[in-house]
Amino acid sequence: MLKVKNLSFDVMEDGIKKNILKDVSFEVKKGEMLIITGPNGSGKSTLAKVLMGIEKAAGGSVYLGGEDISDLAIDERAKAGLGFAFQQPPRFKGMTIEKLLCLAAGRKLPEKECCDLLSGVGLCAREYLGRQADATLSGGEMKRIEIATALAKPHKICIFDEPEAGIDLWSFSMLVKRFEEIHKNKDESIIIISHQERLIQMADRIMLLKDGQVKKIGTRDEMLTELMGVQETKGCLDKHQIPAN
Q1: What is the model's pTM?
Q2: Domains of the chain with bracketed CATH
């Protein structure tokens, strides 16, 4: 479904080139859930943005369903079947939540469908449809709305960057249930960037990213042993902390 070959990304700091991603290669099969984890600063969110085309790779290739999408813009990647939910969602003053969901879906959604999407991420739907996606919403509210927009349209593969960040425990439980449904039905492939143990336990495979490189990738059972036992990965797993917001 998704094939990434030798992906690299660099930035310039004080005139010096810094490698953020270094020859990252991996695959995600149809219907598979891949969890990407690793220490803070390992390049996980950068990798997500490069895959979506938000940041431009310095080298390497990305294939989706056998098609080379390496040179495609964000909207073209979305049309090809790639979805994305930001770790820190953008805000849109003047745009209602209902309109945002319809834009994400690419069609006019019935009110009930909008309500179902919002209810599925722990929001009381009818209180939000007419509200604007602006600074009047908390970070946790915007995060849940962002996830709802990603779920508004079927994708070949969807990337969720730390979906647990900024949401309360009850909403997180509902989100886990939604991921379980998608995974069970094999409706689409999923990449989740996370430190949260409950999400990691759902994975088919886990990829450990460290210093911008794939340190190891393997089945859930193989990698849980690695993550629990290796001192240098301390801090990768977050067992309990779901911020209330």
Answers
A1: 0.84
A2: 2-233 (3.40.50.300)
